[in-house]
Specification:
Elements (H helix, E strand, L loop, with lengths): L9 E3 L9 E3 L11 H15 L3 E5 L5 H8 L4 E6 L2 H13 L5 E5 L2 H5 L7 E6 L8 H10 L3 E12 L11 E9 L2 E8 L1
Parallel strand pairs: 3-4, 3-6, 4-5, 6-7
Antiparallel strand pairs: 1-2, 7-9, 8-9
Length: about 190
């Protein structure tokens, strides 16, 4: 986990009902909590889409993106996290927040997506571990197995050198920005 990204070992909620709350984060190799600066930009972009959205957080890690969405009155969030310790911490953090509309599943995101959808999601966060070739497959499985609502919005964080990533043809890029080694973008399904 990178130190200095919202504090060593913690993530801060920057807006909504839990504004300024700090939550512990489990130290897991490759975990990169989204910085407060990036989160502020992203949630400015997402302002029209968050309220009442059903959210899916692939590769949840610190849970910072889901906690931020839930703080801003998203309807629900399903957080998928493969690492058992990180998943346990996410569950504890939801309990700390007295949040009953967030669910953590300790599972592999690709295996989860590689089944027929049991529900659709309006807002999806995709921030996979870098350099593991998980991004394009995640996007395609979301589309192929009908996990997305008709006009779903998808937030993606990826390593900047992956600029040539291929996304489903019916996704339109709404916004994109670089911050150091990270490119973050907002897509909408058409």
């Amino acid at each position: 986990m990178a130190a200095g990204k919202g504090g060593s070992g913690q993530v801060r909620i920057i807006g909504g009902q839990w504004r300024s709350r700090k939550l512990p984060v489990t130290d897991v190799e490759g975990l990169r909590p989204t910085t407060d600066r990036v989160k502020e930009t992203v949630f400015n972009w997402l302002a029209p889409y968050v309220s009442d959205a059903r959210c899916l957080d692939l590769f949840s890690g610190s849970g910072g993106l889901s906690f931020e969405a839930l703080s801003r009155y998203a309807d629900s969030a399903l957080l998928l996290e493969k690492d058992r310790n990180a998943a346990n911490q996410l569950t504890k953090n939801l309990t700390t927040l007295k949040c009953t509309n967030g669910i953590v599943k300790n599972t592999d995101s690709l295996k989860f997506l590689n089944q027929a959808a049991s529900q659709t999601f309006d807002l999806v966060f995709i921030d996979p571990p870098f350099r593991k070739n998980l991004l394009e497959q995640s996007c395609q499985l979301l589309e192929d197995n009908n996990w997305l609502s008709d006009d779903a919005v998808i937030y993606i964080e990826m390593e900047s050198e992956l600029a040539s990533a291929t996304f489903p043809n019916n996704w339109q890029c709404l916004k994109e920005k670089n911050a150091g080694q990270v490119t973050f973008s907002l897509w909408q399904r058409n």
